[in-house]
Every structure is written in C-alpha cells, then in structure tokens.
Amino acid sequence: MQFAIVLYDRFTALDAVGPYETLGRLPDSETVFVAEHTGPVRNDSGNLALVAEKTLAEVPHPDVLVVPGGPGQTQQMENAALLDWIRTADATSTWTTSVCTGSLLLAAAGLLEGRRATSHWLALEELGKYGAEPTGERVVTDGKYVTAAGVSSGIDMGLALLGRISGDFVAQAVQLGIEYDPRPPYDAGSPEKAPADVTEFMRSRSRFILGHEQPT
Amino acid sequence: MQFAIVLYDRFTALDAVGPYETLGRLPDSETVFVAEHTGPVRNDSGNLALVAEKTLAEVPHPDVLVVPGGPGQTQQMENAALLDWIRTADATSTWTTSVCTGSLLLAAAGLLEGRRATSHWLALEELGKYGAEPTGERVVTDGKYVTAAGVSSGIDMGLALLGRISGDFVAQAVQLGIEYDPRPPYDAGSPEKAPADVTEFMRSRSRFILGHEQPT
Predict the structure, then answer these.
(1) Is B165 on the interface with A (CB under 8 A)?
(2) Contacts of A78 (CB under 8 A, 6+ apart)
(3) Would you give the DSSP letter of residue A38?
(4) What are phi and psi of A6, to 5 degrees?
(5) Smaller CB count within 10 Å for chain A: N or C?
(6) Predicted ipTM?
(7) For residue A1, what pLDDT band results from cuts at 50, 70 and 90?
(8) Is the Cβ–Cβ distance between B175 and A189 less than 8 Å?
(9) Residue A71: which of A216, A184, A212, A187 has the closest Cα?
(10) A75 phi, psi to nearest 5 deg
(11) pTM for the structure as a whole
(12) Would you call B171 and A155 a contact, using CB atoms and an 8 Å cutoff?
C-alpha cells in the first residue's frame, strides 16, 4: 500500500506529520512525500523544511493521498498542476484524505461536491462555498473521502483510517507505539470550549491563519 | 526567546514537530532546527527528512532546548559532541526539555541525576539506570527540566511549557489554533489502557522501537 503526502510552500508541518506518524507505521506500506519539485519544501513559519522525495508526476497512483493544510493552501487553490494531480490520483485511490484546510484543495479539485466534510474551524464557511457540506466533527468519512479538522486532528484521522485499513489491532499498536494518550493542559481546543476572548482573538487573526493575508 | 530543536539520524519526526507546532508559535520567538551538520536529517523510518538550518556550534545558548527521541538515540548516547553541546546549552538555558527517549540523552549528559523525569513507556527502566527517577506521568517538570513521555506527548509538553513561559492566554490561543481537541478513536495510548495482547506485542518489539536492534 502506497501513501502519498503532498507538500507545498507554506504548508503546516503537523498537518503532514500527524498522518505520517500513524498511517506511515502500517507494516509493509510505503510512504512518499511528494511535491511539484523534489527537495526541501518550507512550511508556514518558514523555519522548517521537509524534503519531498518525489515529484507529483512520479507518484501518479497512490493508494492513499493525504493533503495537508496551511496558509500556503490559498495560493495552491489556483495551481492547476496540483489540482490536476489530485484529480488524477483520486481517480484510482482507495482513500482520498485531507487535514485542516487541505480539504479546500480537495473541494477546489471538485471532489467534495455534495459530500460531508470538515476543515479547520475557521475555514468551515469557505469549505461550504466550494460545494461541500461542512460539519463540525473532528474526522469525517464520506465514501472514500476522509477529511479532518485543524492541524492536530490528522493524528486522530490517521488512527481511524488505519483501523479501517488494517483492523483494530494495528491501529491500537500504533497508538501505543506513539503513546497517544493525550492530556492537554488546557481545554481550549475548539471555539466552543476555549475562553471567549481566546476564540475572539483567533477569529480576528483568521485572514493570516487562512493565508488570505500575510502578517507584516 | 530562542528555541533550539535538535535533530540526529533516525530521530522520530513527531517528537520534534509536536513541540515545534506549540512552542514555535510563541510570538516574537525564534525556533531553530540544529544538528551536527546542516542539511537534511533522516528520521527513524528513513523516508522523511527535516532540514537542520544551523549546526550545534552555531547555536550555543538557546533559551530552550528540545531533545527529541527515536531509535537513533542509542547511537547518540556515545556521541561526545552532542552530549557536550547539550551540557553547554543547558548551562545557560531557561528550560531544558525532551520528548520520548530524548530524556535518555539528557540523562547520559548527566543532567537528570536524582531528578524526576519520564520517557517512552518502554524506556522508563533504562532511564532509571542513568540516575533519574522515572515516573509514569505524561509531562514531568523538575526545576527547569521538562521531560515528556512517548512521541505524541510533545504536544502536551509544548502547551504546558508555553503556559509557564507566556501565560494561559497564549497557550490556549495556540491550542485553539492547532485545534488540539483530541478524540483518539481507540483508548490504547498507554500500556495500562491498551488491550493486553497489543501491549504484549509492542513489548516484544521494544528492542527495535528503542533502537537496540534494527529490524531486518
């Protein structure tokens, strides 16, 4: 089974690494980081680069594609080469997945029309504009399309998908291997749970978080 | 405030990226990925490389050092250059931290003598041999030393430390930004919670997980 994780300029690192550290631990599978060009691809903050091992063209038919989000996603919405690759890969994939605003790229490629899907909480409205039916759930499966909420949700998505692919034992072994027994020191992980002033602050920064504007 | 995250051959990616996506979002801070040599550093599975931007020598006095774990840690236990750097950086750091078996490197550098600390659940016994007092907690703070349990615990550690450094508001804003509202699809994240056969299976593989032996 081949997993392809897409990288592009100003992606969010944990969006890619969460699914990687779960799905990528499936025995006898291959995981490839792909991008338009091989070599280092810089993340949203610019101080971390992950290396793309193969070009999109070299990995046309992964069994599972994973599209991370990040502020750079807004520019990729007009990248015909990437959207074409997503459509081509999706045509033969077993599972087509995204984390965070990666679902906007799946939607822009025309794959989420009329489908239940999710995204970063700040991007749910925009997701609806592309024809998807946004839900507030953390991981949404509609047919072969699995979309996850913001950034850290890719870990939950990866484990859930592992369970579908290989059964509970493998998924639980991976969970135990990465000791995923979360104990957040605060209960502020969703706009409903966070203190109102924290949620308001993050809303006021949504144009930066979603990449519509760059912080000066 | 400068954060230095150490990379070395066969580190575990999420050990580094969890603290990165939490601590690294502190306003007006700088995060640098460091290694003995600059350039791509391959992880435990060999199919992902993160780029080290600076050498250890170029970042002698970070305010916070983060030492990830991974199977490659066993080799680093005998790397005098790395252990020397850890000791030097620790001499002036505000916080000295680790994720997973990264705590074994702190211990080997002589920093955890008589201190309460943690590590990956499979490495707690070994941690005790280096003079630390292992606990089963997910994040352990003893003085300026903050150690976290296996792999994914670096996210909890990063948020807890952010709270100490900058207060609850910043930590909660970061938690909301990465939408860290975990919903693991299984409850198998610790050896006590996982089904007995899953725990037994992972125990049987500990020599590979801890890097004492490479899978053939």
Answers:
(1) no
(2) none
(3) S
(4) -85, 135
(5) C
(6) 0.97
(7) very high
(8) yes
(9) A212
(10) -70, -35
(11) 0.97
(12) no
